[in-house]
Structure prediction request, 167 residues.
Amino acid sequence: MALEPAHAAAASLRALLLRIGALYRFPAPTRWSPAPVAVPERRGTIDHRYTFGDLTRTLPLLILFARESASVEQISRCVPGADRDTIRHVFYMFKAFGILRSFRRSRGIAYAFDSQHSLADQLHAVLADLDEAMPQWRALAEEDARAPRTRGRENRTGRLSPKRWKW
Prediction:
């Protein structure tokens, strides 16, 4: 496996992968050729949204990095095309690995990075490089944080009875 040297987070991704390999004690890879193979140059552009395999994994982590802590609803307003359940399950996955921690807020459960995790420094370096490469997502997260929120709808269902001022 070779990392793309033109990727904005190539150095920090390499450090993250080496740290993961050291923590989990993977066996040394076998070399198929005795001489190192030259990596060909990239001809197209790199889509950094697919750094962690899918944009529904990379963008929620990047927006959470920009906001420092956020709920699933706040993240879902910023990630186009992703619903709340998808983002919730991505956060459950990273929480199961111990990378994220959750806590109660007044309007639900919020998530933040666990700074005590052994991969926290390397993951923050990767996300900082991605944040520098894609500043539009930080701007979107900050704009969403400043936007006023209105109550979505009335919780009571049904029709108001005639000649009554209460439900």
Q: What stands out?
A: DSSP finds six helices and three strands in the chain. The longest helix spans residues 10-24. The chain has a mean pLDDT of 83.
